[in-house]
Sequence to fold (341 residues):
Amino acid sequence: MKAQQILYTWDYHHGQATRVVVGGLPPLRGATMAEKQADFIARCDHVRTSLMQEPRGHKNMLGAVVTEPVTPDGDVGLLFLSPHGFFEMCGDSTFSAVAALVDAGVIPQADPDGELTLKLDTVAGRVDAHVRLKAGEPVAITFDNVPSYDLGAQTIEVEGVGPVEARFGYGGLTYAFVPARELGLPALGGLRRDDLLEIGTRVLRAARAQAQLPDYVGPDRIGANRPVDLATLWEPLPGERGARVANFYAPLTCGRTPSGTGLSARVAVEAAAGRLGAGETFVHESLLGLRFTARVARTGVPRADGGPSGVVPAVTARSFLMGTAQWVLHAEDPFRHGFIF
Fold:
């Protein structure tokens, strides 16, 4: 067998599949997670395309790479992959990577029916994950996300619809929230799949092309225009403090889950509007009926550029192991590094 490289993964899901890379990579260089990501791109980006894209993956596949931490008290670092590139933070993959670390025994358990905490270094910043165990198995994972902020409302021009108001928020990634009613849509769940993908893609393109948002994630980026990572179409959940959502992060690509970073951004928006206070919760439900719950763990979090303060959301979900795999990149396989079709 002419193997160019052999990779090892643990695959999890919580509605959306995440492939956690556990072996086959060289140590990544860098004093920060951004530097480690840059090193991965320079030397290992074929691993991302091989594992995320077809024929081994698909357009909705997510991935995580575990690295050495970059902070003195950090437990591990995490990089987040997709078929199209990288995420600075990804709630979905955080749930899966933490579950993998616990299931694999990487993190010692003092009490198999207790709780443990992992300090995670990400490109977006520090994320603390709290794991509730039952017979040694992770049955609930809550992560305290990076500080999350409301970025205000702007009008965007959506092709085939016209001007609509989008509300922008940051929760590790930047989201454009657009109510379904602004687009003249019936219930999200009642739309034909292709129609939903088409309108979601139009909103994403409009938000990315037109939004003017402050970037404050790092001192070197203050004053720049922050890109929009995802667009979220939403409708209220009857009788609840929450929303049913459809999240779009690439053309014709809708997430299967409510999104941990999206829920964090929404919590920041709701808190800024005075509709959510310390200790209160907000729910996001995906079109599959999967629910994530977020609690306002902290308020009054300052912003690096002096803008309006934000919150730290605590998001809870569970991820399930689907299987483990050994992947061969055959030296003569013309598609060994993947493709998007």
